[in-house]
C-alpha cells in the first residue's frame, strides 16, 4: 500500500471516528436543550451529562487530529482549503469554541443555566452544517483560481442544491446517530423513562436521514456526474450494505430489543456510506485541484508520520479502552451510582 | 501601519495566540501542582492537600476548556491565515504537529478519567497515578509545539532548490538549534507562572481574612514551588540568551540595542531610544554583562545589529518586552525567596501584608512576563516567518475577508475571557474551602 493511500485511509478513519463521537455529542446537546424547554430535562439530562463530561474533550481531539493530519500528508490542502475556507472555517471554529467552553461553564461551573444550554444545543446543529462545507467544496465548482490566487465562490455555494442537501443530511444524521446511542446508553443505565423518550427521537429521525441521503445522491448527480457515476457503478454495494444496516438498526429500535446491536448497525450504516463516498471521490481530494498521488508529502515525512501514527495508536487504543471501560461499560457509573 | 491582509492576519494571529497562551500556560503548569498537592496529601494523609488538589482540578477544568477551544482555533487559523507557510510546514514539520495532537489526545483521555474517578479506586495511589499521563501529555504537547516554533526561528532539515524542498529530514527539523533552549524556557516558565497564580489566589484569600490552615498550607506550597521554578526559569533564560548570541544574533541585538559588534559589550536595562540617531538615553548600563550573558566571559564578542541588513532587522521596541520579562522574573524570584526565608525563621511572620501583596502581584505579573516573552520571541524574528527563507508577507492569505474574521474572533475572545473569569469566581465563592473540608473529610484530625 502506498503512503498516500495509507495516509488518506488513516485520515478518513479518523474523520469517521469524529463523525460518530461528535454526532453523539452534538445531538446530545440539542436533545438536552429540547428536553429543558419541554420541561423534561429531569428525564434525560443527567444521563447525557454523565456520558459527555469525561469524553467531550476527547471528541474534540478527533477533529484536531484530522486537520493536522491532512495538512501533514497532503500539504497542498492547506493552500487551497486554507484560502477558501477562511470565513466558513472561522465560523466553525467560533461555534466549536462557544460550544466547548459553554459546555464546561455549564457542567463544571454553574449548573442549570438555560442560556448556556441553548448555546450548547444550537451550536450542536450549526457546527455540522458549517463543517460540511469542507466536504461540499471538495466536489469542485466552488473555487476558482485567478492569477494564481484561490477565490472562494460563496454565492455558488449558497445557491447550490447539492450544498444544501449535504447540510440537511449532516444535521439529521447527527440527531439520528445521537438518539440511537443515547437510547442504548439509557438502556444500559436501566433508565426506562429516558429510554422511552430517546427511542422516540431515534425513530423520529430515522426517516429524514434516509431521505436526506437520497437527496444527496440526486444532487450529486447534477453537481459532479463523474463522482456520481463512480459511486453507483463501482461502489453501489457499499451504499447497499449501508441501507441494509439502517434497516436492521431501525427494526431493532422499533421492536425495543438489542439497542447495543442497533447502535453498532447505525455505526456500520455510516461506515459504509462514508467510506463508499470517500472511495468514489478518489483520486481527488479537492476536485480538480488536489489529487491523492500528486499532492502527497515527501516520502521521508510520510514514512515518519506513519511510524508516529502507529506508535500513537499503541498509546491511544489502550487509553481509549480504559476510558470506555470506566464510563461506558461500567454499569454502576452509567446508572449514576458512582461519581 | 497599513491595515492590509498581511497586517490583519498578523493581528488576528497575535490576538489568538496571546489569548491562548494564558490558558495554555496554566494548562501545562497546573497539572504539576495538582499532582504535587495530591501526592503530599496521600503521603501525609493530610486532607488539606487533598482538598487543594481537588479544588485546583475543578478550576482547571474551566481553563482547560478555554485552552482546548482556543488551541483548536490557532491550529486551524494557521492554515486559514498562512496557507503558503503551512504548505511548506506540511512538508517539513508536520511530524511535531502530529505528535502534539497525540500528546493532547493522551492528556484529554486521562484528564477526563482523573476528574471523574476521585472516589472510584480502592487504593489512593491509583488515582494519583492518573496525574502522570496528564502531566506527560500536557508537557509533551508544549514540547512538540515549541519545536515547531523553534523551527520557524532556526529552520533546518531541508534544502530549497528552485522553490522546491528537497532532502527533507523531519527529525533534524524538529531538533533544530533553537529547540532545547526554547522548550526548556517554555516549560519552566509555565510551571513558574502556574504556581505563581495559585500562590496569588492563596495570598488573596489570606488578605481577605480567610487565613485558615487550608490557605496557609496552600500558600506555603505554592510559593515554595514558584521559587524553585523561578530558579529553573532563570537558568533557562540564561541558556536562551547564549543560544540567541550564537544562532540568532539579530534578535538579541535588537532586544539589547546593541549595534556595534564588540567584546566587553554592555547590558542595557530600561532606557529609551531615539530611533533616528540610535541614541540610548535614561538607561541603566551594566558594563560588560552582555558579553558575559552571551558566552560566560567578558571577552565574548557579541554581534551587533549593524551586521544585519536593514530590511531584515526586527523592530527596536522589543527591548521593552525584554525588560518587562526579565524584571518580572527577578521580582517574582526575590519575593518568593523572601517568603521562604522569613517563613523558616520561627519568630518572624511571613504572612505580613506587604509580602502577601507582593505575592498577589506575582501571579498576574508572571502572566504578563509570559506574554512579553512571547512577543519578544515572535516579533524578534520579524520580518521572517521562516527565518532566512520566507517572509511573513509571502505567507499570508490572499483572502479579503480577514478584517471580518478578526472582528468575529475579537468578540469571541472577549466573551470567553469574561465568562471564564465569572464562572471561576462563582465556582469558588459558592463553596468555601472550610465548608467543603467539613463535608468531604468529616472525620479529620
From TrEMBL, chain A:
Its localization reads: Cell membrane
What cellular-component terms does GO give this entry? plasma membrane
Q: Which UniProt keywords apply?
A: Cell membrane, Membrane, Transmembrane, Transmembrane helix
User: Which Pfam families does its entry note?
Assistant: Cyt_bd_oxida_II (PF02322)
- Membrane topology summary: Multi-pass membrane protein
Domain of life of the organism in this record?
Bacteria
User: What residue ranges are annotated as transmembrane?
Assistant: 6-34, 55-74, 80-105, 117-137, 162-186, 198-220, 235-255, 262-282, 302-328
Q: InterPro entries recorded for this chain? A: Cyt-d_oxidase_su2
Q: Which family does it belong to?
A: Belongs to the cytochrome ubiquinol oxidase subunit 2 family.
Protein name (Swiss-Prot/TrEMBL) = Cytochrome D ubiquinol oxidase subunit II
Query: Which source organism?
Result: Domibacillus enclensis
UniProtKB/TrEMBL annotation, chain B:
Primary localisation category: membrane
Q: Which domain of life is it from?
A: Bacteria
- Membrane spanning segments where? 17-40, 60-81, 93-116, 128-152, 183-206, 218-237, 317-342, 354-377, 404-425
In its UniProt record, which GO terms are filed under biological process? aerobic electron transport chain
* Family, similarity comment: Belongs to the cytochrome ubiquinol oxidase subunit 1 family.
Q: Does the keyword 4Fe-4S apply?
A: no
The organism named in the record is Domibacillus enclensis
This chain belongs to the protein called: Cytochrome bd-I ubiquinol oxidase subunit 1 apoprotein
Q: What is the lineage of its organism?
A: Bacteria, Bacillati, Bacillota, Bacilli, Bacillales
What keywords sit in the KW lines? Cell membrane, Electron transport, Heme, Iron, Membrane, Metal-binding, Transmembrane, Transmembrane helix, Transport
PANTHER family recorded for this chain? CYTOCHROME BD MENAQUINOL OXIDASE SUBUNIT I-RELATED, CYTOCHROME D UBIQUINOL OXIDASE
InterPro entries reported for this sequence = Cyt-d_ubiquinol_oxidase_su_1 (IPR002585)
The record describes its membrane topology as: Multi-pass membrane protein
Write one Pfam family the protein is assigned to.
Cyt_bd_oxida_I
List cellular component terms (GO).
cytochrome complex; plasma membrane
Where does this polypeptide localize?
A: Cell membrane
Amino acid at each position: 500500500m502506498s503512503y498516500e493511500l495509507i495516509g488518506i485511509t488513516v485520515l478518513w478513519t479518523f474523520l469517521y471516528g469524529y463523525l460518530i463521537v461528535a454526532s453523539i455529542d452534538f445531538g446530545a446537546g440539542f436533545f438536552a436543550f429540547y428536553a429543558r424547554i419541554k420541561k423534561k430535562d429531569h428525564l434525560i439530562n443527567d444521563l447525557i451529562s454523565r456520558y459527555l463530561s469525561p469524553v467531550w474533550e476527547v471528541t474534540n481531539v478527533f477533529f484536531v487530529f484530522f486537520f493536522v493530519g491532512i495538512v501533514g500528508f497532503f500539504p497542498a490542502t492547506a493552500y487551497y482549503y486554507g484560502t477558501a475556507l477562511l470565513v466558513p472555517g472561522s465560523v466553525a471554529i467560533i461555534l466549536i469554541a462557544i460550544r466547548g467552553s459553554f459546555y464546561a461553564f455549564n457542567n463544571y461551573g454553574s449548573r442549570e443555566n438555560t442560556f448556556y444550554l441553548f448555546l450548547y444545543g444550537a451550536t450542536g446543529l450549526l457546527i455540522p452544517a458549517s463543517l460540511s462545507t469542507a466536504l461540499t467544496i471538495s466536489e469542485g465548482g466552488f473555487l476558482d483560481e485567478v492569477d494564481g490566487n484561490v477565490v472562494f465562490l460563496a454565492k455558488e455555494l449558497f445557491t447550490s442544491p447539492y450544498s444544501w442537501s449535504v447540510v440537511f443530511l449532516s444535521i439529521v444524521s447527527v440527531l439520528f446517530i445521537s438518539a440511537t446511542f443515547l437510547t442504548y446508553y439509557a438502556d444500559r443505565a436501566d433508565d426506562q423513562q429516558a429510554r422511552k423518550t430517546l427511542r422516540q427521537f431515534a425513530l423520529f429521525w430515522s426517516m429524514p436521514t434516509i431521505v436526506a441521503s437520497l437527496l444527496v445522491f440526486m444532487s450529486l448527480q447534477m453537481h459532479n456526474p463523474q463522482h456520481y457515476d463512480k459511486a453507483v457503478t463501482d461502489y453501489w454495494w457499499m451504499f447497499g450494505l449501508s441501507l441494509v444496516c439502517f434497516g436492521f438498526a431501525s427494526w431493532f429500535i422499533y421492536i425495543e430489543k438489542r439497542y447495543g446491536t442497533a447502535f453498532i448497525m447505525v455505526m456500520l450504516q455510516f461506515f459504509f456510506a462514508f467510506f463508499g463516498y470517500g472511495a468514489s471521490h478518489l483520486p481527488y481530494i479537492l476536485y480538480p485541484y488536489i489529487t491523492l498521488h500528486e499532492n502527497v508529502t515527501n516520502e521521508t515525512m510520510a514514512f515518519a508520520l506513519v511510524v508516529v501514527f502507529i506508535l500513537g495508536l499503541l498509546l491511544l487504543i489502550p487509553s481509549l479502552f480504559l476510558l470506555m471501560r470506566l464510563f461506558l461499560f461500567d454499569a454502576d457509573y452509567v446508572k449514576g451510582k458512582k461519581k | 501601519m497599513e491595515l492590509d491582509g498581511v497586517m490583519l492576519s498578523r493581528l488576528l494571529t497575535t490576538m489568538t495566540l496571546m489569548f491562548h497562551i494564558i490558558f495554555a500556560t496554566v494548562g501545562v503548569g497546573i497539572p504539576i501542582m495538582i499532582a504535587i498537592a495530591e501526592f503530599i496529601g496521600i503521603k501525609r494523609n493530610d486532607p488539606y492537600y487533598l482538598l487543594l488538589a481537588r479544588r485546583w482540578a475543578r478550576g482547571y477544568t474551566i481553563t482547560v476548556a478555554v485552552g482546548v477551544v482556543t488551541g483548536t482555533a490557532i491550529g486551524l487559523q494557521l492554515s486559514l491565515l498562512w496557507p503558503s507557510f503551512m504548505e511548506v510546514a506540511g512538508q517539513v514539520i508536520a511530524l511535531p504537529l502530529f505528535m502534539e495532537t497525540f500528546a493532547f489526545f493522551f492528556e484529554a483521555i486521562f484528564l477526563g478519567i482523573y476528574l471523574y474517578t476521585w472516589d472510584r479506586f480502592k487504593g489512593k495511589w491509583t488515582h494519583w497515578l492518573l496525574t502522570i499521563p496528564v502531566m506527560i501529555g500536557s508537557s509533551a504537547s508544549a514540547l512538540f509545539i515549541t519545536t515547531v516554533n523553534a523551527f520557524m526561528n532556526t529552520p533546518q532539515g531541508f534544502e530549497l532548490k528552485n522553490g522546491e524542498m528537497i532532502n527533507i529530514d523531519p527529525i533534524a527539523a524538529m531538533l533544530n538549534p533553537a529547540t532545547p533552549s526554547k522548550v526548556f524556557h517554555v516549560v519552566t516558565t509555565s510551571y513558574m507562572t502556574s504556581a505563581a497564580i495559585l500562590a496569588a489566589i492563596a495570598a488573596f484569600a489570606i488578605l481577605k481574612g480567610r487565613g485558615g490552615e487550608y490557605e496557609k498550607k496552600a500558600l506555603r506550597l505554592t510559593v515554595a514551588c514558584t521559587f524553585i521554578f523561578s530558579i529553573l526559569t532563570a537558568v533557562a533564560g540564561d541558556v536562551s540568551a547564549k543560544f540567541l548570541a550564537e544562532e540568532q544574533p539579530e534578535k538579541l541585538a535588537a532586544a539589547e540595542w546593541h549595534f556595534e559588534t564588540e567584546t566587553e559589550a554592555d547590558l542595557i536595562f530600561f532606557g529609551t531610544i531615539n530611533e533616528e540617531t540610535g541614541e540610548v538615553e535614561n538607561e541603566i548600563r551594566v558594563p560588560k554583562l552582555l558579553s558575559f550573558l552571551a558566552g560566560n566571559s567578558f571577552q565574548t564578542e557579541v554581534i551587533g545589529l549593524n551586521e544585519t541588513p536593514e530590511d531584515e532587522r526586527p523592530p527596536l521596541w522589543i527591548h521593552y518586552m525584554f525588560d518587562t520579562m526579565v524584571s518580572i522574573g527577578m521580582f517574582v524570584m526575590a519575593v518568593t525567596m523572601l517568603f521562604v526565608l522569613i517563613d523558616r525563621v520561627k519568630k518572624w511572620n511571613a504572612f505580613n501584608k506587604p509580602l502577601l501583596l507582593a505575592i498577589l502581584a506575582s501571579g498576574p505579573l508572571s502572566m504578563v512576563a509570559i506574554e512579553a516573552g512571547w512577543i519578544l520571541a515572535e516579533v524578534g524574528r520579524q520580518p521572517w516567518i521562516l527565518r532566512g527563507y520566507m517572509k511573513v508577507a509571502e505567507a499570508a492569505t490572499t483572502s479579503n475577508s480577514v478584517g471580518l474574521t478578526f472582528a468575529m474572533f475579537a468578540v469571541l475572545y472577549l466573551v470567553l475571557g469574561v465568562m471564564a473569569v465569572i464562572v471561576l469566581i462563582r465556582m469558588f465563592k459558592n463553596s468555601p474551602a472550610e465548608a467543603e473540608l467539613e463535608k468531604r473529610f468529616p472525620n479529620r484530625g
